[in-house]
Amino acid sequence: MGDGIQTLHTWERSGLLDDAWSRREFLKFCGRMAVLLGLSDAFIPRIARALETAIQNRRPSIVWLEFQDCAGNTESFTRADSPSVAQAVLEAVSLDYHETLMAAAGHRAEEARHKALEAHRGQVIVVVEGSIPTKDDGIYCTIGGKTALQIIREVEPYALVFVAVGTCAAFGGLPKANPNPTGAVGVEDVVRTKPVINLPGCPANPDVLMGLLVHYLVFNRLPDLDAQRRPLFAFGKRIHDTCERRPHFDAGQFALAFDDYGARQGYCLYKLGCKGPETYNICASLRWNMQASWPVKAGHPCIGCSERDFWDRFTPFYERLPEVRAFGVEQRADRLGGTLVGVTAVGVLAHALYTWAVRRAERKAEELAKKEGEAKPNPPEG
Ligand code: SF4
Question: Is the distance from the beta carbon of residue 270 to the nearest atom of ligand 1 less than 6 Å?
Fold first, then answer.
């Protein structure tokens, strides 16, 4: 951790590389990252080496700015899968400024930011959480006497890339919803000279942010993006195409109330307002909380929180999507006993396949850890 934050945490930096248990967990984490990034098991040692190098030598500087936000992405990130996950990435980067996490306050906090920017000019990974108000010269969000807009302008020359984490930073989110009283916009609308990567979601899945950082550390470049600047490894597929309830959709089996027979049977939630057919994200495969669950599995329709202008386009949340001609959803939803089950065989298996790949990568990582342990010389007796 950087100077501004290290007083808050007590994680030891040596554990990941030396301690046997931590080492195994570290390699398993590398395996999970390989699966997330769509890489083969053969990349596990390479990911491990890249993280080790970063931990020991060249920890990239991260400056995390919060503007019109609820800190939900910070909450999500600090509650990532297990301590070893957050530990692995947070030790490989230097989190030099983060208003919510850092112990320093006031002028000392601002000094920490300036110090990090000056020390890593052109190389700082700037994470932004929250939207940026532009109305009335941006007066609706000020930090240390400067507006969010001024802070972005100040930081931009020092940045390598901006990572807009969460839908507010990516697309303006809730603050931008009609009538948008503060003139809120996303990072991509104000940053002019540096690349912007969008990781939308309310909140964004913390593993996706970690995957992005790991990709940069391993390949020394940013991942491929879609037209909305979202990494393809996480936003390349529709939720509808990877959802475990998809066979019910194709069979015309829908829950019509949250407590009806269909809901209890795990039927499709489309007629309760599910926005999965219009939403691109990795939720159905990756899930949350150690891959335990995600909203649709828990019985709640997807509200499309990672899509642009979702508050305006997708509310009321519990009303069925209007006809979506591009996807033919309405037509399919009304075709009882449809014939598309074969089409979705891959979709319904998405999580199972993902989990299988993760378990396989973890087993490979355990083998690697065992081999490393066997190759180590025994400690001298006495
Ligand atoms: S409409 Fe929603 S619940 Fe139904 S299959 Fe699509 S994503 Fe899953």
Answer: yes
Q: What residue numbers bound the domain in which 101 lies?
A: 15-234
212-243 per-position pLDDT tens digit: 999 999 999 999 999 999 999 999 999 999 99
H-type helices in the chain, by residue range? 15-18, 20-36, 44-56, 72-78, 83-92, 106-119, 148-155, 167-171, 173-176, 206-219, 232-235, 246-250, 261-264, 283-286, 310-314, 329-333, 345-348, 350-375
| Together in a domain, 263 and 212 | no
* Cβ–ligand 1 contact at 59 (below 6 Å): no
For the stretch 135-153, pLDDT in tens is 999 999 999 999 999 999 9
Number of domains present in the structure of the chain: 2
Q: For residue 310, how far is its CA from the centre of ligand 1 (angstroms)? A: 17
CATH code (residue 299) = 4.10.480.10
pLDDT of the residue at 224: 97
Same domain assignment for residues 196 and 128: yes
For residue 217, the model assigns a pLDDT of 92
- Residue 181's CATH number: 3.40.50.700
